[in-house]
Amino acid sequence: MFRNVLSIFLLVFGFWCISAFSYGKEFSFRVKIEPPAASQQTSRFQVVIDGTKVNFYVDKNVWSEWTKVDNAGIDAIRKQYPNLYLGRYPLVFHIRMVPSIPETKIYLECEVDSKQYSGQALFTGSGAMNVGILQWEEDGITKMGTMAQYNNKYWHHINKAAESIGEIKRPEKTSYC
Q: Phi/psi at 112 (nearest 5 deg)?
């Protein structure tokens, strides 16, 4: 009897924890993909967020329609690396575009909680053409941006700390045995 009550309690507590500590909000996004002018490889790109139902085509040099990622999409994103083990913000995902063309400029606009955020990236290499996107909470406000934009909030603190250390004095002479 005690085991049954305990198992029901743990089950209810588990569901409460999942709902109380859930993270990730529905959002909308759109992309504009600008391959180099000399590239005649394609005039359309496929845009995908792996694990979700987001899969559409966009013409080059034109903004796509706004695409909504709903709670089902957020749940799918939470089950992917690295979100699966993080279990909290930031919510990390990638928007993948096919085909991959070096020197392609990618522009992105996201909207979450009626606030818009924009970012851009330059695809310079080979392999999958994707943009890493994060959704995070800062001072109670949900924000979105590229991985570089997210990391930018730390650069000021790192530079300030480096300035406070000053110049590092290195030994002028060393003795070797």
A: -140, 135
Number of separate domains in the chain: 1
> With 0-12 CB in 10 A as exposed, 13-18 as middle and 19+ as buried, what is 110?
buried
DSSP 128: -
User: Is the residue at 151 inside a domain?
Assistant: yes
Q: Please give the Cα distance from 3 to 169 (Å, whole number).
A: 65
CA distance 64 to 106: 12
How far apart (Å, rounded) are the C-alpha atoms in residues 98 and 42? Answer: 10
Query: Which has more confidence, 3 or 18?
Result: 3
CA–CA separation, 59 and 34 (whole Å)? 9
Contact of 82 with 42, CB cutoff 8 Å: no
Report the DSSP beta bridge partners of residue 117. 110
The answer to the question of residue 153 being in a domain is: yes
Within-domain flag for 95: yes
> CA-CA distance, 56 to 30, in Å (whole number)?
11
In a domain, 8, yes or no: no
Residue 100 clears pLDDT 70, i.e. is over it? yes
In which domain, by residue range, is 121 found? 23-164
This prediction has a pTM of 0.76
